[in-house]
Write a structure and sequence with these properties.
This protein is an alpha+beta fold. The site of adenosine-5'-diphosphate has 22 residues, from strand 9, strand 13 and strand 14.
Length: 495
């Protein structure tokens, strides 16, 4: 599979900020792009930005962004020659990749076989163990008739029961003792079946507050695979990333080179092509263990782009066109930290919020990057993931990047829908985060510094907007229960 193929028009099979990001990269590469949308996204930013847009169907993702036939037909109707899946939705679906290739289109992603090999956590673990990459100690669940959890208990408690097809922090149960195992396995199986259509679960040793470190890899069709440093993603809520950075304050050049080597071996073992991420858990001793591989672009890819001065989506496009990987930097030149801005209420258990975004003002300035898919006046819909934007601070040092990010968060104005903006600001000002002493358990116990008063401009903007006609028309903010999003929509499994 080494043939070069000129691309001219790309279907962007996604929505929100990642659709906007991919459209921009296509444009920079001189490619036309076609957006797709559901009825809820008729006026969305990605639709306005693309050269053409195709309506897929009603708001529920199953009838729009998750429909393989609708997406293939949209690509054919608009004479696209390639499909970029973004992240979430169908980005890790090997059937979609095959359908795209079967329709004579170029899939901007890894081969379907590599996606399948890494799609099941159980088979990915076996593959990695065989390759010599250290894997978190674990065990398969014996048949119910055996009635014995001997192998699991020998791992030592706590353990975590995990869905083999899991993602986005779903389908995981931490278990403190053998007595709790049976019921945790049953409930995890039920959750896995409803979220992923696959009830297969297994058990891993639950490591004590490790760091989550992941390595960006890139492979081309000529057998070259390289690693582009690590990202630290230890600040998580319910096993989902909230703040990510590159490089990790815990990784020395020597550790980086070992992590990168393990990641490259992992990617090579499955014949990886395109951008992908190999995730590890790092213990204070310096020992690290393979967790999983995400066979797509990650939500947090901008921190690698900023730290290494590269464009990962542009690289995906050139790899898909059959080009060789260029010479890439061996080490990061900058530090970058990203915060995910969600429509959610931190004071109400992070309950997702819906409503109309009456005012949305993005921060700017040196060392600030914003990846967003929203505009003022837009409805924040209950059907999709509540992430509004990613704000990145970039600096020559970690502290410069952190300060720029805090300032940028304070400058961001979101009115009409409650967001986690001020919570993020407080998190980034907390002592452990300032010192870079984070781990995946930190957010469970961390007490955040007091809320800073919002700047005066926020009140002025609020007054201006709320006295105008938009406020009367909107009906204000409303909350909704975090129901099952109707899709196994995975962002950042870590995504
Ligand atoms: P998902 O695919 O749902 O994102 P992962 O397997 O990538 O799940 O794990 C997500 C997060 O859950 C990790 O970053 C880490 O914080 C926590 N986690 C997962 N497995 C373990 C483990 N064995 N020990 C400790 N923490 C874990």
């Amino acid at each position: 599979m080494t043939s070069a193929r000129r691309l001219s028009r790309v279907l962007v099979a996604n929505r929100g900020e990642i659709a906007v990001r991919v459209i921009r990269a296509c444009r920079t590469a001189g490619l036309e792009c076609v957006a797709v949308y559901s009825d809820a996204d008729r006026e969305a930013r990605h639709v306005a930005l693309a050269d053409a847009a195709v309506r897929l169907g009603p708001a529920p993702a199953k009838e729009s962004y998750l429909s393989i036939p609708l997406l293939i037909s949209a690509a054919q109707k608009t004479r696209c020659d390639a499909v970029h899946p973004g992240y979430g939705f169908l980005s890790e679906n090997a059937d979609f990749a095959r359908a795209v290739v079967g329709a004579g289109l170029v899939w901007i992603g890894p081969p379907a076989e590599a996606m399948e090999a890494m799609g099941s956590k159980i088979s990915a673990r076996e593959r990695m163990r065989a390759t010599g990459v250290p894997v978190v100690p674990g065990a398969l669940i014996p048949p119910e008739t055996s009635g014995s959890f001997k192998e699991i208990s020998s791992l030592g408690f706590p353990v975590v029961v995990k869905a083999s097809a899991g993602g986005g922090g779903k389908g995981m149960r931490v278990v403190g003792s053998e007595a709790e195992l049976s019921s945790a396995i049953s409930s995890c199986r039920r959750e896995a079946l409803s979220a992923f259509g696959d009830s297969t679960v297994y058990v891993e040793k639950y490591l004590d507050s490790p760091r989550h470190i992941e390595v960006q890899v890139l492979g081309d069709m000529h057998g070259n695979v390289v690693a582009l440093g690590e990202r630290e993603c230890s600040l998580q809520r319910r096993h989902q990333k909230v703040v990510e950075e590159c490089p990790s304050p815990a990784v020395t050049p020597e550790l980086r080179s070992r992590l990168c080597q393990a990641a490259v071996e992992a990617a090579r073992a499955v014949g990886y092509v395109s951008a992908g991420t190999v995730e590890f858990l790092l213990e204070p001793s310096g020992a690290f263990w393979f967790l999983e591989m995400n066979t797509r672009l990650q939500v947090e890819h901008p921190v690698t782009e900023e730290a290494f001065s590269v464009d990962l989506v542009a690289l995906q496009l050139s790899i898909a066109a059959g080009e060789r990987l260029p010479e890439l930097p061996a080490a990061p030149s900058f530090h970058a930290i990203e915060a995910r801005v969600y429509a959610e209420d931190p004071d109400a258990g992070f309950l997702p919020q819906a409503g109309r975004l009456l005012l949305w003002v993005e921060p700017s300035g040196p060392g600030v990057r914003v990846d967003s898919g929203v505009t003022a006046g837009q409805a924040v819909d209950v059907h999709y993931d509540p992430m509004l934007a990613k704000i990145v601070g970039v600096g020559r040092t970690r502290e410069e990047a952190r300060r720029r990010l805090v300032a940028a968060l304070r400058e961001t104005v979101a009115l009409g829908v409650t967001t986690n903006l001020s919570w993020l600001g407080r998190l980034l000002e907390s002592d452990p985060v300032v010192r870079g002493e984070t781990n995946t358990g930190l957010l469970e116990t961390l007490v955040l510094p007091a809320l800073l008063a919002p700047p005066d401009e926020v009140f002025a903007a609020a007054a201006a907007v709320l006295s105008g006609p938009a406020a009367a028309a909107s009906g204000g903010t409303k909350s909704f229960r975090p129901g099952p999003f109707d899709a196994p929509f995975r962002i950042g499994s870590g995504a």
